[in-house]
Specification:
Largest sheet of chain A: 2 strands, antiparallel
Shape of chain C: globular
Number of strands of chain A: 2
Chains: A mainly alpha (196), B alpha/beta (216), C mainly alpha (176)
Structural class of chain C: mainly alpha
Strand order of the largest sheet of chain A: 1-2
Radius of gyration of chain A: 19 Å
Largest interface: A-C, 127 and 128 residues
Oligomer: heterotrimer
Number of helices of chain A: 9
Order of helices and strands of chain C: HHHHHHHHH
Distance between the termini of chain A: 48 Å
Distance between the termini of chain C: 23 Å
């Protein structure tokens, strides 16, 4: 049953090779979808371009369906895959800060890498800022340590929170995503008219 | 009709159907999960590599380095009569609630499941593996064998004898006049005072494969 | 598709999204975890710090766990994934003639203004990503796919933060 112990299968160097491959595909898909373009990314927040919403949520829904069908059929062991632990308050506050950073900077960490890879100068400046922000965090996290560790809810998942079965949550998320796509499309046409 | 819309409609329908089908199919329950795990784990049962001798359990109880968890899955009345010191009484239905705890165990953690013989504990082991796959073992011969070896005839024990005459049937074969739980001497034998017993050590500490996920 | 996306011939977002979703699934399947990015940049930054001011690295707990003493911050899968992202982005851009030194910016501002805001946004992003223990790749995509509550809360917070601030900084991006 998947997942596998990569190091046991391929050795450390081999496992790194797998990650480079995964990263390559990731970067390739991102760039092809236009995510190295800050104008495109920022336009999401003006309802002008909806790539961000559509790519992100399509990816999440597709991955979810594949993952949980695999666990249902015993192909993938759910207990072995990484579920992000929930630290509620730092997660929300960090998210708000990142939202601000997104609209000011025009990128997020992953997309800024793609931008740098295609020699975009705004991406380079963003990257430098990113590194600076990381360093600032590393230096100051000691002062906000109790906040940073607050709101810990363990490896809490939506099905556990809502007391609803996994498959049903997947279905609901799928419906929500599709409704969002239609809704944002409608909003966009209302704001900008049908002109392309 | 915008012809570009057709494939998107098709895609949306596929996703809806796939997720709806998933909701109907459901995720595997513990028994099904055991079925998936069985090919890899069943040999451990058949070759007895997950059964540990009572002397090994005693050694674990006295080893300060080991973080030992003893799950006692017997009926409550048996538990009340006698149980090992620091054991936890738990019904197999409640194993699922242990999942988070079992997933965050340290590298030096060892779980041992005990019942009177091996029937209940073996079934419990399967379910426990389906819940979380901890580093878990089964007490060989159960508490009946334990008491054969370490049971001390005292005035509290009305009837203590080598009960190896009966076939193992999952019932407690040592009777205690008073249900003292873990306050019997046999609940935590002194390693220095009991006869040394030879055994094949089976417990191995698993190297924790660092579940490194997220953004580092 | 939308105007800018169509003009630049970017992929249909549903196609890109589906492919990304399959990749994300394969990542979980093969490696047991999802994708990530900010953690890799973090570690590269720490590695550089370790070269320049190693004693400080050893004394600051948050960084020390990654690079203190003998530890190699680069010996972690995410660093290699970041290397791959750079490569993949480059090759994709190369194939479509999009590898060009230029600055993307809104029509109302100059490239220099854009650089300043890109830097500022980057600082917020870097700080926020560490605060949230992940970024849109690690938390939103990967955590979202496995239904982590914290990840979904994070995701909505990112969108909320962006949308709320967007109106105030519209001069950066919008037409006059």
């Amino acid at each position: 049953m998947a997942p596998y112990d990569l190091v046991a299968l391929f050795g450390t160097t081999g496992s790194y090779f797998v990650y480079v491959t995964i990263g390559f595909a990731f970067g390739f898909i991102l760039e092809s979808s236009g995510f190295g373009d800050s104008r495109l990314l920022a336009a999401q927040f003006y309802f002008r371009e909806l790539q961000v919403l559509k790519v992100m949520f399509t990816a999440i829904v597709v991955a979810m369906i594949l993952i949980f069908w695999s666990t249902a059929l015993g192909l993938l062991d759910y207990d072995e895959i990484w579920v992000n632990p929930t630290y509620l308050w730092p997660g929300v506050v960090g998210g708000l800060i990142m939202g601000a950073g997104f609209i000011l900077g025009g990128y997020c960490p992953g997309t800024s890498l793609v931008s740098v890879a295609t020699l975009k100068l705004d991406g380079v400046f963003f990257f430098l800022g990113h590194v600076t922000g990381i360093i600032i965090f590393g230096e100051t996290v000691g002062f906000i340590s109790s906040f940073w560790n607050s709101g810990y809810l363990g490896f809490l998942t939506l099905p556990e929170l809502l007391h609803v079965e996994t498959g049903v949550v997947v279905f609901l998320v799928t419906c929500m995503a599709l409704l969002m796509f239609a809704g944002f499309d409608w909003l966009r046409s209302k704001i900008y008219g049908k002109k392309k | 009709m915008n012809t570009r819309l057709q494939p998107e409609m098709l895609g949306a329908t596929v996703l809806l159907l796939a997720s709806a089908a998933l909701a109907f199919h459901g995720q595997p329950d513990l028994n099904q999960k055991w079925e998936f795990l069985a090919p890899k784990l069943e040999p451990g049962l058949q070759q007895r590599t997950v059964y540990i001798d009572p002397a090994e359990l005693l050694h674990l109880m006295n080893d300060d380095y080991i973080h030992l968890i003893i799950y006692d899955v017997r009926p409550e009345s048996d538990w009340n009569e006698f149980h090992l010191v620091d054991a936890e009484h738990i019904a197999t239905q409640d194993f699922a609630s242990q999942r988070d705890r079992l997933h965050s165990l340290p590298e030096n953690a060892v779980v041992v499941i005990v019942s009177n013989d091996e029937f209940l504990s073996t079934e419990a082991w399967k379910l426990l593996m389906a819940v979380a796959k901890p580093n878990a073992y089964i007490l060989e011969g159960g508490l009946n064998l334990w008491l054969n070896i370490y049971g001390v005839p005292t005035e509290e024990v009305a009837h203590h004898g080598k009960a190896s005459l009966g076939k193992p049937d999952g019932r407690m074969r040592h009777r205690f006049r008073l249900a003292l739980g873990d306050r019997h001497a046999a609940a935590r034998p002194d390693e220095n005072l009991v006869p040394q017993r030879e055994y094949t050590p089976r417990v191995k500490l698993l190297k924790k494969i660092a579940k490194a996920g997220g953004c580092g | 598709m939308n105007a800018l996306a169509e003009k630049a011939k970017y992929w249909n977002p549903y196609v890109g999204g589906a492919l990304l979703g399959i990749l994300l699934f394969l990542s979980f399947f093969v490696t047991s975890h999802g994708l990530g990015a900010s953690g890799g940049v973090n570690r590269i930054a720490v590695a550089v710090e370790d070269l320049v001011i190693p004693e400080h690295v050893d004394k600051t707990p948050y960084i020390a766990q990654m690079a203190g003493g003998d530890r190699d911050p680069l010996a972690h899968w995410i660093v290699w994934e970041v290397a791959g992202i750079l490569l993949g982005g480059f090759v994709s851009g190369l194939l479509r003639g999009r590898v060009k030194v230029q600055t993307y910016h809104g029509p109302q501002i100059t490239p220099h203004t854009r650089w300043a805001f890109a830097f500022a946004g980057g600082v917020l992003m870097g700080y926020g990503a560490r605060m949230a223990r992940g970024c849109t790749s690690g938390q939103a995509l990967s955590g979202g796919a496995v239904m982590s509550v914290g990840s979904w809360a994070f995701m909505f917070a990112v969108f909320a933060g962006g949308y709320v601030l967007a109106w105030f900084v519209r001069r950066l991006w919008q037409e006059a």
